[in-house]
Amino acid sequence: MYKPVDTNLNFVEREKEVLAFWKENQIFEKSIALNEGKKGFNFYDGPPTANGKPHIGHILTRVMKDIIPRYKTMKGYHVLRKAGWDTHGFPVELEIEKLLGIDGKQEIENYGIEPFIEKCKESVWKYTSEWKNMSDRIGYWADMDEPYITYDNNYIESVWWALKTIYDKGLIYKGYKIVPYCPRCGTALSSHEVAQGYKDVKEISVYAKFKVKGESNRYFLAWTTTPWTLPSNVALCMNANEDYAEIQVGEERFILADALVAKLFEEGTYEKLSLKKGKEYEYAEYEPLFNYETGAKKKAHYIVNDDYVTLTDGTGIVHIAPAFGEDDGRVGRRYDLPFVQMVNERGKFIPEAEDLEGMFVKDADKVIISKLKANGALFKEEMFEHSYPFCWRCDTPLLYYARSSCSSR
Ligand SMILES: [Zn+2]
Description:
- β9 and β10 form a beta hairpin.
- The chain has helices spanning 11-24, 27-33, 56-74, 90-100, 104-111, 113-123, 128-137, 153-168, 191-195, 261-264, 278-281, 326-334, 361-374, and strands spanning 43-44, 81-85, 143-149, 176-182, 187-188, 198-211, 218-224, 235-238, 243-249, 252-257, 271-277, 302-305, 317-320, 378-389, 399-404.
- Strands 11-9-10-7-6-14 form a 6-stranded mixed β-sheet.
- The two termini are 59 Å apart.
- With 409 residues, the chain is of the alpha/beta class.
- It folds into 2 domains: 11-87 and 124-172, Rossmann fold (3-Layer(aba) Sandwich); 198-404, Isoleucyl-tRNA Synthetase, domain 2.
- Bound molecules: zinc ion (ZN).
- Residues 182, 184-185, 391, 393-394, 396 line the site of zinc ion (ZN).
């Protein structure tokens, strides 16, 4: 039963001999046929993208994915193994954009969506033979002759069927997600892509005065590093458990975190009038900074509470624009705040923003600051150095932007 092993054994050659034996004798097919009629265990490959070359990471996952079906076969199950190809997605589209010398969503639409899709379909099979050779070489057993392919209509229709079934059961709704987004490329970026594009930049931050509703000369003081989000403001957020001071400075009274008063006001220039917890201000109303027609139906412009507000920078009062920040979006849902998005997918102000219409957000910062100044709502502007993400592809500053969970790309 045993043969002595040659001390000069060539492992690579040995593997090739085994593979050839498997192939010649149809061992994979037999291993399935042998258990025909027994209890089934199905394996669908989590499909790789065929328009990229296989790399060492794929070998690791393929080896692991091979172990379970083999084990189940040895335990007597009838194990069908279907390979698959993921033909959708951004990597495919990027390849074709490069090939056609076009760039971004708008240029794809100009080129024509249907012909673009055709090009994508052609391109996805570029490296199939590399994938087949790699899979064979590592002894990965799966039915590669009849794979499922995500661009096949029967596959797409089964996804639709699944979605409709979930919808019919009332388990699905349309929402939005705040994503790092490049307004030039018209696409959301993965966290991995965002991490590649951080740069230290100096930008203008502002301290804005939000007038307490129905009172004169009394303000909540809030700080923001993105003045362009102020026209989409719907609330101010305080930390329920922190102390907030109200101080008198000349004719005016300001409410801000007690711990940050000394950072913003010189000793002796103010008088402390009261000290309250953020909780006591919850639902207190203020007047909006701008009077744009936002179309918002729900109640807005009041104080909300959340723990994410810290006292490390600013005033301890955070301006909330649910369309432009993950925490803002979360707080907005919790308080049922209206969703106001005064900026379109190109990063430009929409017509409702009147005089700001068509302006790119970062260019609008200066205009907004001068408007605040004119309205007496600017307390202070300050250069602020921080690390900000830029698009790794085109160097445009990324926006944190609420995108409908149903839109493409
Ligand atoms: Zn970009």
